[in-house]
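re the bet — no i am not wrong, look at it urself. input seq straight from the record:
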Amino acid sequence: MSTTNAASSPPRVKRELPPLMSLSEGAAERLRSLYSKAEAGKLLHIGVKTKGCSGLAYDLSFVDAPAPGDERVTDKGITILVDRKASLYLIGTMMDYEVKAMSAGFTFVNPNEKGRCGCGESFHV
């Protein structure tokens, strides 16, 4: 007679969580430049706010100190802050810095996005 004992079952294997956010080389280089000049002594704070056709938009600002509950993310030697309320929307996101013919700015490759509006200003999950 065989009995199944919960204590004898194999231990559950924990899956490693993806990093909250990562930076491309371009984003890291741009932030290094900003942190050493115009935004010296500050940190980039990333959040998500309700805006635009699709409902959500990335909100970037430079702050002097983290707010209570902000998550610190360090990648490629650069530290950014992520609003804890935005964490679920941003898990696994890579921030890049793109230079185009008529514009330049930070962009996001977010695996949680289900779609974007036509103008590219907002997204939904």
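see?? The chain is about 15% helix and 40% strand. told u. also Residues 65 and 99 are 29 Å apart (CA to CA). so pay up
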